[in-house]
Amino acid sequence: MHQYPMPIDVPRLHSARWVVAVLLGWSLWGCGGGSAIERDAPAEEAPPAPLKTSSLQGRWTAPAGATSAHTLLVLPSATDGTAAVWAITADGQALLRLQMQATGAHEVELRGWRHVLGEGQMPSTVAWQGTAALTTGSASMTFEAGTLAFTRVDPLDQPPRLADIGGSWSATLGEGAVVLHWSVDASGRLSGSSTTGCTYSGMLQENSHATLFDTTLIETCQDLARKFAGIASPRPAMDGTVSGMTLALVQEDGDAALLLALRR
Questions:
Q1: Residue 203 and residue 190 in contact, taking contact as beta carbons nearer than 8 Å
Q2: Which residues pair with 59 in a beta bridge?
Q3: What's the DSSP call for residue 37?
Q4: CA 250, CA 95: separation in Å to the nearest integer?
C-alpha cells in the first residue's frame, strides 16, 4: 500500500501564527514596550516654589498720603524661614510687632500685636493677609485686599557699624515734657537718664544680616525696672553720617512698647 503524506491544514497554521503574534504583543506590553498614549503623556508641572521671606528684607513705606500709612522693617530669620516685622504708624502713635510667614508663591501673612503708645494701653491682635511682587529693580507688597500698600525703599543689606552710633544722643517724650540724655560707647553699651529721674542702661549689637542694631534696654524709675528688647535703626544724614536713630522696643512681658527718635 502506498504511503501518502498527511495533508497540511492551512487554516490551522494561520490560527497558530495569529496566537503567537497576540502572545508576543502581550509580552512586549508587559516588558515595558508601552503604548503611544503612555509615552506621550505630558509630565505633571511642579507647583511653584514658596516665596522666601529673605527676599523681602528691608525698609518699606506707604505712598505719600496713604490711609493707615506705616513704615515696615522686615528682618528674616536665619533659621525657620519666617521674618520679624516692625511696623510704625505714620503719626508715631502705634508700634506693631509682627511675624511674617510665606503661604504661597506670592502670598504672605502677618500676625502679631499692635501697641498704642502711652501708659495703660494694652496691645491688640493683628492679622494681615497679602501678596508680594518682586521684579528687577522694584518690590511691592499689599495687604488687606489692597488697602495697605508698601514699596521697598532700602534693602538694609549693608553691614551696620558701631563706630557710626557712638556718642551722645537725646530724645523727647510726651510732647517735650520728658527729655532723655543717653550715650553709646565704642562697644555699644548704652547709658543715660531722663529729666524725670529715670535711668537707662542697655546694649546695641550689630545685626549680622541687616543695617540695624539688636537692642536691649532697662528703664528704672523709682526702683521699678522694666526690660525691653527690639531694634535700633540708624538714620543717615545727607552727607552719609548717622544723625538720628529710631528705637522700636517691646517690654519683656509684651504689655508695653517704646518708640524713640534719638538725635545727635
A1: yes
A2: 73, 154
A3: H
A4: 9
Q: Which grid coordinates are listed for 62?
A: 506707604
Q: What backbone torsions phi and psi does residue 57 show, to the nearest 5 degrees?
A: -55, 140
Whole-angstrom CA distances from 255 to 95, 118, 159, 228 are 12, 11, 32, 10
Cα distances (Å, whole numbers) of residue 80 to 76, 131, 136: 9, 20, 26
Residue 175: which pLDDT band, with cuts at 50, 70 and 90? confident
CB 92 within 8 A of CB 259: yes
Could you give the percent of the chain with pLDDT greater than 70? 82
| Strand ranges in the chain using DSSP code E only, listed in sequence order | 58-61, 70-76, 83-89, 94-102, 107-116, 124-135, 138-143, 148-154, 167-173, 178-184, 189-194, 199-206, 213-221, 224-236, 242-251, 257-263
Question: What number is the average pLDDT over the span 111-140?
Answer: 90
The whole-angstrom separation of Cα 156 and Cα 26 is 66
70, amino acid identity: H
- Give the whole-angstrom CA distance, residue 204 versus residue 231: 8
Of 146, 148, 147, 151, give the one whose Cα is nearest residue 135: 151
- Give the confidence band of 28 by pLDDT, cuts at 50, 70, 90: very low
List, in sequence order, the alpha helices (H) in the chain. 10-30, 36-40
Tens of pLDDT, residue by residue over 77-120, are: 877 889 999 999 988 899 999 999 999 999 999 999 999 987 67
Average pLDDT over residues 208-231: 95
